[in-house]
Design brief:
31% strand, alpha+beta, Nucleoside Triphosphate Pyrophosphohydrolase, 3 helices, three-stranded antiparallel sheet, two-stranded antiparallel ribbon
Length: 155
């Protein structure tokens, strides 16, 4: 999801939930995403995952972005759409894992523990390295120019 604020382009990023990520910031945020099966339509899956990770519906005109292979080897397909939401009010699905390690106790954590709107330069610092290309491509599609050494940006 992207939006314009005071002539700046911002993107919505999510931070992974769970104890391993709680104190990590730069290079850990991502676009809302998830896995899908070979028989599932990728855009339908992307909309479902957005809803599961944020509690908001993904709707509007979707801009198809070039699929990108991640350092892990996974191939991620992504779409962008213009919208707005209260990042502080996200509701995420949860997952269960053994925590603390080797305790035998199962604990539940949100898949996404928070979301935030970021201007482009900040987003590129916060996001996973393999997702930066999605931001760059979105800027190209929208013909949005930004100065990589400053936060002041313009159309």
């Amino acid at each position: 999801m992207y939006r314009y604020r005071d002539s700046s382009l911002e993107v919505l990023l999510v931070h992974p939930g769970g104890p391993y990520w709680s104190k990590k910031e730069e290079g850990t945020w991502s676009i809302p995403k998830g896995e899908y099966t070979d028989i599932e339509d990728p855009l339908t899956a992307a909309k479902r995952e957005f809803k599961e990770e944020t509690g908001y519906d993904a709707k509007g005109k979707f801009l198809s972005l070039t699929p990108r292979r991640q350092p892990s080897g996974k191939l991620i397909s992504a779409w962008a759409f213009e919208g707005d939401c209260d990042a502080d009010s996200i509701i995420s699905n949860t997952f269960t894992m053994e925590w603390p390690p080797r305790s035998g106790k199962q604990s539940e954590f949100p898949e996404v523990d928070r979301a935030q709107w970021f201007p482009i330069n900040s987003a590129k610092k916060k996001i996973l390295k393999g997702h930066i290309g999605f931001i760059d491509e979105l800027c190209e599609i929208l013909k949005y120019k930004y100065n990589s050494s400053q936060e002041d940006q313009s159309f």
